[in-house]
Amino acid sequence: MIQGQSRWQGGRSVGRQTRCEEPSRGKLRACDDCGLLVRLLHEEAGVDCRCPRCDAVLRRHRGSPLHAPLALALASLILCLLTLSTPFLTVRLLGQSRGSQVETGAWAFADDGLWVLSLVLIATVVLVPVLRLSLRILVLGGVQMRQPSRWLPSLLRWHEHLGAWSMLEVFLFGALVSYTRLVDLAAVELGPAVYGLAAVVLAMVAADAAFEPQAVWDALESRGVMAHPARQGPAHAKTPLVSCHCCRRVEPARLGEPCTRCGTPLHHRKVNSTARCWALITAAAILYVPANLFPVMTIVTLGRGGPHTIMGGVVEFLESGFWPLALIVFTASVAVPMLKLVGLAMMLVAIHHRSARGLRFRTRLYRLIEVLGRWSMIDVFVVAVLIALVRFGTLASITAEVGAACFGAVVILTMLAAEAFDPRQMWDVAMPSAEDGAGARAIFVVPESNHTA
Q1: What is the mean pLDDT of residues 270-297?
Q2: DSSP H stretches of helix in 251-354
Q3: Are the CB atoms for 411 and 377 separated by under 8 Å?
Q4: How far apart are CA 227 and CA 396, in angstroms?
Q5: Residue 359 belongs to what H/E stretch?
Q6: Helices (H), 146-259
Q7: Residue 275 C-alpha from the chain's centroid
Q8: Residue 200 in contact with residue 410, Cβ under 8 Å?
Q9: Scanning 91, 210, 276, 315, which has the fewest C-beta atoms within 10 Å of its C-beta?
């Protein structure tokens, strides 16, 4: 193994390197974004360890890694269940009224024949948030019991896989955009679920900030709760170190063997990453055209009205003077999907040409695509709130159209494409000599300057 204290300048690693014995495995971490193998030296509470090569956060250290996240997750789950069981919005028009709850838009999508969007709304706004909070509570509570259950690694693994598909905060922004449209049409009353949803979002943001999965995985391992028994016998000198994509444990193993901590099959890189990503963005690009050309909803008031496209909604906000909302809708529904498609295609082409230009820029772009991906669902949630409330027959009605289904498919496909893409391949093809001669990889010690509060 090679151990050394290094910094990254001008596309190359500089610093001293010395031969040493194999370091402690518990402190090894492979960067998810560039693949650099790092040995973390410090574990002070309140600091983040960052990759010296691409500046990705490798580990967040919290003062109370188990108790505070458990309390916040319990509070979030209670607020979430109360919010889902109380009235959300009520619309009154010419003596008629219609109320809704958070999930009512899903049944309206089903009435309009868009069953896929109905399932997506129920999953992302109801099922996944509740399930993810429940799994977090079970894991955080279970690891502190006298005899932790052997199922805890599987529960935490599912919790990690569901992270990107919890969209309550996106739904809240979609509801706010819908409210600005509804007040021009009828009288709107805010139900307790509106305030509850805002409280849930704040509580979940705090819970996510306090929760560090690596600390929980380490706690499970220290309690002896492992998905598979430790491999017997000394590791062969040429057995490569492999980082688990789920729990980030680094261990010597043959490709395809299960991770001893979480049970995930181990691979040096994501399997068929490039081919899967190309297929997904190609399908998303094809659907992006009808998503913008076809109407996402039809609005009829007193027998007058017609279909509305995504850009039509942006123009309507501009004409009404709501330019901040127009900017939000345009960014989330037009610019962000295009950014994801173009950005991922550019990174795939760079891998094909083995380009070393702008590695850090492309890595940051990938992080941005990952973060912004689900926010494109705002337009789908806007349609869901409107069609759930405006169903007054000949007086006023709003129905969902095929454009909403195409746009929802674009968002989901681009999210799956970002998840399938492996940014480490950009660094692999640019620096093929990063491997040590005996199959070992360079291990860099993160210096104190790379720890940021």
Answers
A1: 92
A2: 273-293, 310-319, 323-330, 336-352
A3: yes
A4: 57
A5: helix 359-372
A6: 152-161, 168-182, 192-210, 213-222
A7: 21
A8: no
A9: 315
